[in-house]
Amino acid sequence: MPNKNKPPAAAAAPPERRSEILAIAAEVFAAQGYNATTVRRIADAAGMLAGSLYYHFDSKESMVDEILSGFLGELWARYDAVLDARLGPRETIEALVTESFREIDRHRAAVAIYQKESRHLAALPRFRYLTDSQTRFERAWLGTLERGVAEHVFRADLDVRLTYRFVRDTVWVAASWYRPGGLHSPEEIARQYLSMVLDGIAVRT
Amino acid sequence: MPNKNKPPAAAAAPPERRSEILAIAAEVFAAQGYNATTVRRIADAAGMLAGSLYYHFDSKESMVDEILSGFLGELWARYDAVLDARLGPRETIEALVTESFREIDRHRAAVAIYQKESRHLAALPRFRYLTDSQTRFERAWLGTLERGVAEHVFRADLDVRLTYRFVRDTVWVAASWYRPGGLHSPEEIARQYLSMVLDGIAVRT
Amino acid sequence: MPNKNKPPAAAAAPPERRSEILAIAAEVFAAQGYNATTVRRIADAAGMLAGSLYYHFDSKESMVDEILSGFLGELWARYDAVLDARLGPRETIEALVTESFREIDRHRAAVAIYQKESRHLAALPRFRYLTDSQTRFERAWLGTLERGVAEHVFRADLDVRLTYRFVRDTVWVAASWYRPGGLHSPEEIARQYLSMVLDGIAVRT
Amino acid sequence: MPNKNKPPAAAAAPPERRSEILAIAAEVFAAQGYNATTVRRIADAAGMLAGSLYYHFDSKESMVDEILSGFLGELWARYDAVLDARLGPRETIEALVTESFREIDRHRAAVAIYQKESRHLAALPRFRYLTDSQTRFERAWLGTLERGVAEHVFRADLDVRLTYRFVRDTVWVAASWYRPGGLHSPEEIARQYLSMVLDGIAVRT
DNA sequence: CATGAATGAGACTTCATTCAT
DNA sequence: CATGAATGAAGTCTCATTCAT
C-alpha cells in the first residue's frame, strides 16, 4: 500500500512528513468530501504545491486508501479483542459501541470519510476491503444481537436486522458532529447512547 | 421561457417532463453523490443529450435546489400539522418519526441527497434555507424532548442534546438503505424504531 | 437573399413582420455586437421564441447579411447620385460627408454593425460584397481627394492616403455615439465636421 | 501560486512567460474580437493546450483585463505628464495626440481591443475602470478644447463637444489600420493628423 | 405563424497527474 | 524534496438550429 516510488527506507526511519500530510488530507476530505477536495487544496493546507504531493503519494486515491485502511485496521484490532473476549451479548454490544466512539475520538476525520464515501469507493477494486469489512461488521453486530435475543437478553419482538441498521448508523453518523476535546468524552457519549438504545428514553412505568 | 427565473418549487401547470427529469436526477444524485454525478449521466438516464437539460433547468445546481426545496416544503407541511396538533411529548415524537419515515418513503432520493449534501450546499447563499430548516428542525425536536423531560415522560438522566442528535441522525440515515416497496412499510419501520428509542432493546427485568 | 423557405408571395404583399424583426435585430446587434448577440435575445425583443425566427430567416448570418446589404445598397444609391453629378472636389467631399451622416441618421444600427463587424464578416464568402464596397469606397474618396490636390483645392503637403483614412473613420465612427432625434441634425453634424476637416479648428492668424 | 489574487497590472519579478502569452492573446483578441476568440486559439498561438493557459491566468476575462489595464496605466502616465506640464491649448492637444499615436505604436493590439470591446466590457463590474478612464479622458480633452476657445486659439463657432468626439475617435480608430514598422512613424502620423485637424485640408485662400 | 422540445457542436474551465529542473 | 509549467481528459454550460405539432 505504501508508495511505490518511495526509497526503500526501513520502518525505523518513519517518513514523518507522510503521516502529517495524511492527517491534513483526512481533515480536508472529511470537511469537503472526497470528490470535492482538490489535490491543490490539500497541498495548500500542507504548505506545498500540488505536484509535490506526488513525491509522497501515488495519487489522490491512494491517500484515501491509506486513510481508510489505516482506520479500519485499527478498528478491527479493537473489535477483535472485544469479540475474542466472548462476553455476554449486552456486554459485547456495550464494548463494541464504546470502542466505536473511541475510534471516532481518535480518527474523527477518517470515520467521517468512511461514512460519506464508503459507498462510492467500494465500487473500485482497490477498495474491496471496504465491503469485506462491512460484511464482517454485520456478522459481528447481527450475530451478537441474535445471540441476545436467543438468550432473552434483548426483546424478541424487534426486527433484528432493522435494529442492526439503526444502531450501526447512529454510531457512525456521530462522526459528523463529534468534536474531539468537546464536552463529552467518548466513553460518556457511549454510555448515553447505550442507555438510550438498551433501556429507552421513556420513563418506565 | 421555461428556463430563467422560474419559481423553483411551484407552477400552476407543472410541465410533465420537468418533474420527470427531476425525479430521475434525484435518483442519480442519491446514488452517486451530487458532485460525482455528471450532467450527462442525468441526461442519459432521461434519454436526452446533456445540453438538452438546460432547456428545462438553469444549471445542475438549480436541479438539486428544486429537489431539496420541494422535499423540505412538503416535509414542513406535515411537521407543522403535527406540531400544531399540540399532542403530548411522546405522541409528538411518535408522530414526527412516523411522518419522517413516510417522507423517506415518498422522497427517498431527496432525503438521501439532503443527508449527504446538505453541509456542502448550505455554504452557497442560494441554499440558505437548508440551514434555516435545520434550525427549525432542532427547535421542534429539542423542544419536544425537553417538554417530555419536564413532564416526566422522558428520562431526566439523559443528555437531551445528545439524544436529539442520535434520534435525528438515525431517522434520516435510514434513507440510505430504505427501499420503497420493500418488506417494511414506513409505519412499520417507525414503530420498530420508536419501540427501540422509547423503550430500549433490552428485556425489562 | 430572401429566405428560401418563404412562400413565393409577390413583392406586392411585403411581409411586414420581416422588416420589423430585421430592425429589432439590427438594434440588438449594434448594441451587443454580432457574436455576443444570441438569437434568443432577438426573439425576446421581437416577442417570440428563438425557434420562430427561423420561419422568417435562414440563419442569424442571413439576418446581418440582409441588414448590411440593405444599408449598403441604399448608401451607394446616394453616393452614386453624388458622384454622377460631377461636382468639384470640395463640393463632392461635402456631399459625400453629408450623405454619410444622413445614412447614419436613417440606419444608425446598420452603420454601427458595419463599423464593428465588417472585418470579421468579410472573411466569409457570402459577405464578399463588404470588401467590394470598401474598394469602391476607397476609390471614390481617394480619387476625389487626389483630384482636389491636383486642382489646388486641397493642400499638397498632406499624405492623401492618411487623410482618407482619417476622414473615412471619423465619419463612420460617429454611428457609435449618434442618436437620431438628438440635438444635432445630420446636416448640422456634417457642417461642423466639414468645417473642422476643411478649414481646421485653429483660429487663422 | 501565480494564479488567483494576483495584481493584474504589476509584479516585482514579471514571470517571462506570462507577458509573452499576454502579448499573443492581445494580438489574437485584436484580430478576431474578444468574443470570437476562443481560448484554444490563444493557446495554439502560444504553443500550448487550452487548459494550460489557466496555470497563468484565471480566465479569458482576466487576460483582457490585464491587457487593458496595462495599456491604460501606461497611457495615463504619459497623459498626466503632458497635462502637468501646463502647456498652451494648442500645444497640449499636439502633445496628447502625439502621445496617443505613440501608444498605438507601442500597444497597437491593446488599443484596438480597447476601441472595439470597451463598451461591452464596461458593463462588467471588474472593468469599471474603463468608464472611469473615459471620464478622465473627456475631461482632459474637452477642457483643453474649451480653454483653447476661451483663449481664442481655437475657433469659437465649432461645437466643442462634437469636435471632441471627432478628434477622440479618429485618433483611436487609427489602431485598426496602423501597422508598427510601416511607412509612417507615429510622430509623422501625429503631425499629419494635427495638420488636418488644426489647419484643415483646404488650401487657404 | 408560432411553440416547445430537443440536438450537437463547441465554448470556458477544472483538475489529477507528470516531469524536467 | 519541492517548484513551475504543462498535459489531457472530462465537466458544465451556451447556442444556433431543427422539427413535429
Please describe what this structure looks like.
The structure is a homotetramer of 205-residue chains. The longest helix of chain A is centred in the middle third of the chain and has 25 residues, at 60-84. Chain A has nine helices and no strands. The model of chain A is unreliable at 1-14 (pLDDT under 50). The radius of gyration of chain A is 19 Å and the shape is elongated. In chain A, 67% of the residues lie in helices and 0% in strands. The first copy, chain A, has a domain at 58-176 and 183-199: Tetracycline Repressor, domain 2, CATH 1.10.357.10. Chains in contact: A-B, C-D. The A-B interface holds A 32-33, 35-36, 90, 116, 119-120, 145, 152-155, 157-159, 162-163, 165-166, 169-170, 173-174, 176-177, 184, 189, 192-193, 195-204 and B 32-33, 35-36, 90, 116, 119-120, 145, 148, 152-155, 157-159, 162-163, 165-166, 169-170, 173-174, 176-177, 184, 189, 192-193, 195-204. Chain B binds a DNA duplex (21 and 21 nucleotides) through residues 1-2, 15, 17, 38-40, 48-56, 58-60. Chains A, B, C, D: Residues 15-75 form the HTH tetR-type domain.
